[in-house]
Design brief:
This protein is α+β, with helices and mostly antiparallel strands and 494 residues long. The protein contains seven helices and 28 strands. Pfam families: RAB3GAP2_N (PF14655).
Length: 494
């Protein structure tokens, strides 16, 4: 009887350009220092401190392109984080540097955006998007930047507007054969939020899990303000008799509570961090949204108008003297981050954090070879695995039910409800990849893999305005660095 195959080969990334990143020796993919990887569809981006290599494959054919960064060690530093940003019709590569700069490049290697965030090493770029189908509503979409003890957040809409404007300007200037060159001072600043999350020590990894309700004190304050209005005035406003005061009072408070949650002057996010001093920490991040509509318009129009005037002034009164330029950039002040809870268990240290698509679960690896499954809403560890040192985790979706799995072979369309959320655990010391059903389900698969292998996941699409009629499940890919073969873990179990 033939052995069941749980992976499907997609292509090979082997090429001569990989030697610039350390390829050629056994285990180079996991042993090469400062080597970063990011996957998107059928393209893989790899980078060292100053070079980005993009490899695309299609069956037996592969192509590659290089982006060499001209970074100043004293200003930008070197590449320390890498991630694809994928919109409907836009694909770009984002980079974080060791000195706190956020860069965005086109696939052709053009520098689209450059912005200073904070004077610290950016260790991770996280993309949280909405995986839409006909039964799913839109959630908060963001790009987060993780630094030791600091986390920053860009709204996807702001990044999308910047990218669309750049590509439109590039297409309109296509007739001009001169290469577009931008001075670092010409990049418009994109609004972002930044928080200090080092209350319980510096963090090794972090993630924004989603929007959370406001604290009870804010709700109480708003209720107290509402109680100032006499109930007979409210009754008259609704055209109802005053004798229904008790009923109307309850009705008013219930509706006011819903209004306050939806129309709060502050927006709050939940952030989970892992680190040396505290294995797990959680914070409530506040975002000031109390500006009026006029203030919001002014904040958008005035900087754009000032930028236009400044550009015209440079053309009219351009001077050869550049000695007066000041390259020193001051970091943005921190927004409020209120600590919620922490777990300290010396000598255990938190190492890596992986978030589920909905943000309700997080898989956390520690220095003692354990994997903790955290409910990010209740902030409770709901499952624990032991004996997985140096492990990597990624969430995926599989057709676990036999009926759903058998229907997949008949080309029927599966919806989100047909798939089960699972956790893929790569244990390099054991040479295996295991797949466990969430939250408390059994181990579904055990797949053997070569020593120099790594599990990857494509960057999720963000800023999409279209809704697909078919649901695309979350998949995990397996890259064998020594052979160059890349495979996908099959969706169906049976």
């Amino acid at each position: 009887m033939a052995r069941k195959q749980h992976t499907t080969e997609l292509g090979c990334i082997a090429c001569e350009e990989l030697s610039d990143l350390g390829a050629g020796k056994e285990g180079w993919l996991i042993d090469t220092p400062n080597l970063l990887t990011s996957l998107h569809s059928r393209s893989l981006a790899l980078s060292n401190q100053s070079l980005i290599l993009i490899i695309s494959w299609d069956n037996d054919f592969s192509s590659s392109s290089q982006i060499r960064l001209s970074l100043s060690p004293s200003i930008e530093g070197h590449i320390s984080a890498l991630e694809w940003l994928v919109f409907d019709d836009i694909e770009v590569v984002s980079v974080g540097t060791s000195n706190g700069y956020f860069l965005v490049f086109s696939v052709a290697g053009d520098l689209i955006h450059k912005q200073f965030i904070y004077p610290a090493r950016i260790t991770k770029l996280g993309v949280r998007g909405t995986r839409k189908d006909l039964m799913q509503e839109t959630l908060s979409e963001e790009v987060s930047l993780v630094m030791p003890g600091v986390i920053a957040r860009f709204d996807v809409a702001d990044l999308q507007n910047m990218l669309r404007q750049w590509f439109q300007e590039t297409q309109s200037d296509f007739w001009d054969q001169k290469k577009r060159r931008r001075d670092p001072d010409e990049f418009d600043r994109i609004h972002y939020q930044i928080w200090n999350v080092s209350k319980y020590g510096s963090c090794a990894d972090a993630a924004i899990t989603g929007i959370m309700p406001p604290p009870l004190m804010e709700l109480q304050t708003n209720f107290d303000a509402l109680s100032i209005v006499p109930f007979n005035m409210r009754n008259a406003a609704y055209g109802l008799p005053s004798e229904n005061g008790n009923f109307l009072k309850l009705f008013w408070y219930l509706n006011s509570a819903a209004f306050i949650v939806g129309q709060s002057s502050q927006r709050y996010y939940c952030a989970v961090t892992v680190g040396e001093d505290a294995v797990i920490s959680a914070y409530r991040l506040s975002e000031d949204r109390s500006r009026s509509l006029v203030g919001a318009i002014i904040s958008k129009v005035v900087p754009a108008a000032f930028s236009t005037i400044a550009s015209v002034s440079k053309v009219i009164w351009r001077s050869d003297s550049t000695s007066s330029k000041n390259h020193e950039v001051k970091p943005q002040p921190f927004a409020k981050a209120a600590p919620l809870t922490c777990l300290k268990d010396h000598p255990r240290k938190g190492e890596k954090l992986t978030l589920s698509p909905s943000g309700t679960l997080a898989a956390i690896t520690d220095s003692l070879g354990r994997i903790l499954l955290l409910d990010t809403q209740a902030l409770v560890v709901v499952r624990l695995w032991k004996g997985y040192r140096d492990a990597s985790c990624l969430f995926m979706e599989m057709l676990v039910d036999k009926d759903a799995a058998s229907s997949s072979s008949t080309y029927s369309i599966q919806g989100k409800g047909d798939y089960s959320l699972c956790l893929a655990i790569h244990a390099p010391r054991k040479g295996i990849v295991e797949v466990w059903q969430m939250r408390t389900g059994p181990r579904l698969l055990t797949i053997q893999c070569a020593r120099g292998s790594k599990i990857l996941q494509p960057a999720c699409g963000i800023g999409s305005s279209s809704v697909s009629s078919s649901y695309v499940p979350l998949e995990v890919f397996l890259l064998n660095g020594d052979s160059g073969q890349i495979s996908v873990l099959n969706r169906a179990l049976h």
